[in-house]
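Why does residue order matter? Because the sequence determines the fold. Keep that principle in mind as you read this record.
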Amino acid sequence: MKSSRREKLVWKANRFYLRYGSEIENLRRLVEVNLTQLCLAYTLKNQLPLEALEVVTRVKPLTSFIDKLERLGWPDFYYPTDIIRDLIGARVVCWFVDDCYGIQKMLEQSHGFRVHSEETEDFIAEAKPSGYRSIHLMADFTYDSVTGEDGNHQLTPRTMVCEIQIRTRLQDAFGQLTHDFPYKNSDSETGAQYQEMVAQMAESLAEQDRAASKIRELVRKFYRHEKRAGFAIDDKPEPGMSPRLPETDSSD
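Structure:
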């Protein structure tokens, strides 16, 4: 691969991020708002506290995009999503495994996202050899874009693909802990030891997730019978906001 080709593609990537970075960041916020609203609806429907589902989003950094180009052999592109489909990524982190599948189903029924069901990967049902567990979805979301020339502009609906991962808090902790470990892809003796140890750790965490699922109904019963209070006008609580669990004395 000639260095001139690499330099051209790196320049092209830099130019895109410089020119469209703020727009992509706005789209990330749009994805986060829509996902958060979906999670709010899910918690209300299932008598769960708002904290039971957490949404995190990010835009793929320029350095990661360039690394991806290198791994793929420096392919040319017009738009970054020609190369990567997770330019915008989102993660829904749940307290319980049951809710990973529940929010997946709600996403598939959502009007704001169109899930590519044929691309769904369920690594909770069938974990990776490393022990990694998560549900991976690819979904299109729709947004308004201004198009036109010579002062004749109009709003045009456009779609963009994003990757959505759904996992429990324990699965998320495992994924973050093992993401950048230097030996995870090594064929060395140290790499083999690492793979064995993290696989054992992942199975232990999966067992704890199964145990945690047993308290889900207790949590739902608590919120089912508690009066949900939100913003109050004249001391009258508004519906739709769930209380937090009672504070406990740390000295106990």
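The domain at 3-218 is CATH 3.30.460.10 (Beta Polymerase; domain 2).
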